[in-house]
Amino acid sequence: MDSESLIKKFDKQANKYNKRRKNDSAYKFRERIFQEAEGKVLEVAIGSGLNFPFYNKEVELTGVDFSREMLKTARDAAKEYPFEATFIQEDVEFVEFNENTFDTIVSSGTLCAYQKLGNVLNNFQKWCKPEGRILLMEHGISTNKPLAWLQKTLDPLALNFVGCHQNRNITEIVKKSRLKIIREERQLAGYLYLIWAKP
Fold first, then answer.
1. Of 133, 141, 146, 140, nearest to 103 (Cα)?
2. pTM for the full predicted model
């Protein structure tokens, strides 16, 4: 799917995502991993700001998203929280940051959509400080075989309607990148991946 079509899909979903900030089915999993974000934080494909409730007041947040409507929603939402925030409208696959800029890089539900996923993860390694951390909460192929079969079958339909793949093995993709997995948990029949990594 070309990037313009993908952007339009996410623009249309901005209001729906905004309503989920305080009533999200993955709230407890977001809380489990993203409360560990600290220092200068980069959140890629920040969307409507679903992770804002878990950031402490000392973080300096930089949020990137290619959707103008998502960023507009995130900017408005950030006014409710005490941390400092900067927002950049840019495609994560093409944005550039200096090496060793961020203490924490956060990604949630974004690895399903990138065209060149390996390049994105390797950029995380480059942008993160050597002693920093990379926190991922992603959905992907389930450990439950019937559910995994369904995900594979419906993947073209999901890509067309919501703009993301359902059948990616997130663990294997991260292992093939330059990141080092420190800890991993699988939740919701193995469909949800929580990954603590470092450069």
1. 133
2. 0.89
